[in-house]
Design a protein that fits this description.
Helices cover 27% and strands 29% of the residues. With 260 residues, the protein is α+β, with helices and mostly antiparallel strands. The N and C termini lie far apart (41 Å).
């Protein structure tokens, strides 16, 4: 795929984001699209966002849990970028009209105090570089019609990132077993999903190490001060206006979000 086409598809995804519309799957239109093409398209889409005034505040890992892999039919992790325009505060209302086809994921967020850059980053390195962890919601969203995505589609679409919400408690990762901590996700007062830290590539720090090493191969670091979303701990939960959600993670705390 040539650069002109990559840029054109990135612009198409950016326009879909801005206008809350969907496009047909890229893989249905370009059978030869590669993962490398998809990341080039992602970079174009993100360049448009940054040119419009957004600022990178972190990164995210997607498709880390078997539940999400099975739901999407995508069987390898991917990554995307977080910007200041994606941040909502604990308990703050998110206007559903600003999203297209949102789904909520309960995750563990890492706040870095040291820069991590692969290759060779280990889970122990991740924990040593982490100021604290927080319960969080990632509200994933897809600009691809009906979530009909293959790995190339979600990669190109910034790993299907919508917005995210951090809890109000920062916990030292050495004070909690991140592999065994349990997660409960409630929607409108009913439990709709449960999981554990091990759902994210066996341990959330493994997921962050994977990201540091994958990005390091491209000369990109996880920077001190950034927020890193380590991946969903259970299946994605569809949301709409009027929904209230809360995620609780053992030893870490909770996070709430509502949609108007």
């Amino acid at each position: 795929m040539n650069k002109e086409l990559q840029n054109s598809l990135g612009d198409e995804l950016y326009a879909a984001l801005k206008h809350c519309t969907v496009i047909e799957p890229l893989t249905a239109r370009h059978a030869d699209i590669t993962i490398e093409d998809a990341y080039a398209i992602q970079q174009r889409m993100m360049a448009r966002r940054l040119d419009a005034g957004e600022r990178v505040v972190g990164k995210k890992i997607g498709v880390t849990s078997k539940a999400v892999m099975d739901m999407l039919g995508v069987f390898q992790p991917d990554f995307g970028w977080l910007t200041d325009a994606m941040v909502f505060n604990e308990g703050e209302a998110i206007p559903a009209s600003t999203l297209i086809q949102p789904k909520a994921e309960g995750e563990i967020a890492f706040v870095l105090t040291q820069t991590l850059k692969g290759p060779g980053v280990t889970a122990a390195d991740v924990l040593a570089a982490t100021e604290g962890v927080m319960a969080c919601f990632e509200i994933v969203d897809s600009r691809i019609r009906d979530w009909k995505i293959k790995i190339q589609d979600t990669v190109a679409d910034n790993a299907s990132c919508g917005v995210f919400v951090l809890g109000d408690r920062l916990v030292d990762p050495r004070d909690v077993d991140l592999g065994t901590c349990g997660m409960v996700l409630e929607k409108n007062g009913e439990i709709v999903a449960t999981g554990a830290g091990a759902a994210a590539l066996g341990h959330p720090a493994n997921a962050v190490a994977w990201l540091a090493n994958t990005l390091g191969a491209h000369g990109i670091a996880l920077e001190a001060g950034e927020v890193i979303l380590s991946g969903s701990l259970a299946a994605m939960v569809p949301v709409k206006a009027g929904d209230n959600l809360r995620v609780s993670i053992g030893g870490i705390g909770g996070c709430s979000v509502r949609f108007t």
